[in-house]
Amino acid sequence: MLSQFSRTELLLGKENMRRLHDTKVAIFGIGGVGGYVCEALARSGIGAFDLIDDDKVCLTNINRQIIATKKTVGQYKVEVMQERILEINSNADIKILRCFFLPENADEFPFQEYDYIVDAVDTITAKIELVLKAQEFNIPIISSMGAGNKLDASQFRVADIYQTKVCPLAKVMRRELKKRGVKNLKVVYSEEQPIKPIQDITNECSSEVEHICTQRRNIPGSVAFVPSVAGLIIAGEIVKDICNMNHQKEA
């Protein structure tokens, strides 16, 4: 019988589709990168999601975030993403956590339930804590490095954190993870040199909607075709890992 996943099954097979259906992925950060991770995983047949973010859709998100439209401005991102996933797969099991992940609340999350973790958050302290939690519970994790201030989506690479170069965020993560004894971390990063934004809009961003970007020291520039590619690469790595396709390729 045909389903929305029939074309995927032609490439992956029934057993791998069952694996995807039985997998629960936690996506931390439903923004430019995380939104496209959710989109691709939902369309790939992942059966369960935890969506974690406390941000609302902002007018300035429309240029790059898949859930952002004039209609969704002001709505919570996790709620918009939940509705979108259910329109793709009405049988998906989705839990939304309307909060930001922080070292201070890390113990409140049900890590023991997760089969895979996506780190698409912005802050270094949260990224590090997510990696440590994944290590503690022995859960596969993939982290997004910097996707802002970039224009060349072809410069993205998948690598271990200790093999990265150029990316300023990856440099900080390498140093901090090494201090904590973390031996490896799969990341998606760009080897493109960051571009300096032409104008600082930090104090101009969306006065009508409370938004975390107003709390940043600097707001990075971004375009539609860079964070989306990072998100799709991450989703592809997750699907291949769950289906053991990356291990087969390495063998």
Protein model, in words:
- There is one protein chain.
- This protein has 251 residues and is of the alpha/beta class.
- It contains 8 helices and 7 strands, in the order ααβαβαββαββαβαα.
- It has helices at 6-12, 14-21, 32-44, 77-88, 124-137, 168-179, 227-242, 245-250; strands at residues 24-28, 48-52, 93-97, 116-119, 141-144, 156-160, 186-190.
- A 7-stranded mixed beta sheet has the order 3-2-1-4-5-7-6, with helices on both faces.
- Helix 3 (32-44) links the parallel strand 1 and strand 2.
- Helix 3 packs parallel to helix 7 (227-242).
- It is globular.
- The two termini are 34 Å apart.
Provide the fold topology.
Blueprint: H1 6-12, H2 14-21, E1 24-28, H3 32-44, E2 48-52, H4 77-88, E3 93-97, E4 116-119, H5 124-137, E5 141-144, E6 156-160, H6 168-179, E7 186-190, H7 227-242, H8 245-250
Parallel strand pairs: 1-2, 1-4, 2-3, 4-5, 5-7
Antiparallel strand pairs: 6-7
Helix pairs in contact: 1-2, 3-4, 3-7
